[in-house]
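Hi P.,

Sorry for the delay on this. The queue was packed all week, but I finally got your sequence through. Input first:
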Amino acid sequence: MDKFYIITNSAKDKNQEFTNEIVKYLKDHGRQCQVQLAERKKEGAYHYTNPDLIPEGTQCLLVLGGDGTLLQAARDVVHREIPMLGINLGTLGFLAEVDRMSVYQALDQIMADDYEIEERMMFTGTVWRGDTIIGRDVALNDIVICREGPLRVVRFKNYVNDVYLNSYNADGIIISTPTGSTGYSLSCGGPIVAPNGAMTLMTPIAPHTLNTRSIIFPAEDVITVELGKGRRQDTEKGLASFDGDTVIPMVTGDRIVIQRASVSSRILKLNHLSFVEVLRQKMHNN
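Then the structure:
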């Protein structure tokens, strides 16, 4: 690879000192490199990273920050179909496999074309109020539907391919991709699956019923979650959260339709370790 583009979380690399070191290293090796700071946008076609600023012909996106920064970048630039490498400047994560100590070795590998590319499925989520779309976004990790406001149980009605499945009285529901199986879903008792797999996981959050487990569906199934009424038959307020970032407000009767996106994220893999080996390391079970 010869043409690089860096997306930097300025909060984790103040004054862009580390970013500038990487730019210099790449240019010293005869490569092209430009930089964009990932900053929150209140409105517009993107959330943090403007995909239109990425030059045509870019072969690799280096995302400096952590798993959260990589998730943000993936949602903004997925339609450009450029492979991404996460460089972790914070705590250890599952997505950003390179850290400050290993970054130059990683760059050498990429410049030598010694890497693999993993395709990661994504979701699109569309929130409906009657026959009107009130919001839409994409997610690489998960889409979480939960109550808003006071701590009380809300009823969630679930449909698969427009066929009624079940209802949960719970704090919320997580609809997760394989990539997101090691995130919020895992902390709520969901299974771990290989990130390059193709399936959809449904995991309730603090369900008020016994023997409730996660359910796994084929990747092409369409999941619909409708926000029901509270225990007192009150109108409830809820939220649909995309990768723990973008939030779309919902009320009783609103529904979100979640399906596999037509595009997928492309993640560079350098360590050539199997998912089982990576998982063992992350779980400190040596």
